[in-house]
Amino acid sequence: FFTLIMVSSYTANLAAFLTTQTPDSPFSDVEGLQAQSAIKYGAKAEGSTQNFFKESKNEIYQRMWNYMEANYQDVMLKTNEEGVNRVNNNEDYAFLMESSSI
């Protein structure tokens, strides 16, 4: 009887796991983020991430900075907390910040 309960429980959990869909990300790296237009992206205004993109010689990062600069009021935020909240509120926004802040 115990074995029947365990097998039933395992089967139910496996079925639930297999039917749960995980959302697909429309991009997997910064090149993909830069190439798409559905998700806005930005960083902390006047922060080191902004300076990284602004000063970069990498063509992709330069294009990303051009986008952020052109949309500054909408995508550049005052604090990291504001950026994390905007991402968590599912606003089709990617917030770029230093890994030491994550």
Keywords:
single chain; 102 residues; mainly alpha; D-Maltodextrin-Binding Protein, domain 2; two-stranded parallel ribbon; 6 helices; 56% helix; 8% strand; signal; ligand-gated ion channel; glycoprotein; Glutamate receptor ionotropic, kainate 2
CATH class: Alpha Beta
Give the domain tally. 1
Uncertain spans: none
What does the largest sheet look like? Answer: 2 strands, parallel
Give the CATH superfamily. Periplasmic binding protein-like II
Which descriptor suits the 3D outline?
elongated
Ends distance: 48 Å
Secondary-structure blueprint:
Blueprint: H1 2-19, H2 30-35, E1 40-43, H3 48-55, H4 59-70, H5 72-75, H6 80-88, E2 93-96
Parallel strand pairs: 1-2
Signal peptide: 1-16
Membrane topology: Multi-pass membrane protein
GO cellular component, one term: membrane
Polypeptide structure, described:
The protein has one domain: D-Maltodextrin-Binding Protein, domain 2, CATH 3.40.190. It is about 55% helix and about 10% strand. With about 100 residues, the chain is mostly helical. A two-stranded parallel sheet has the order 1-2.
Concise synopsis of the structure shown:
With about 100 residues, the protein is mainly alpha-helical.
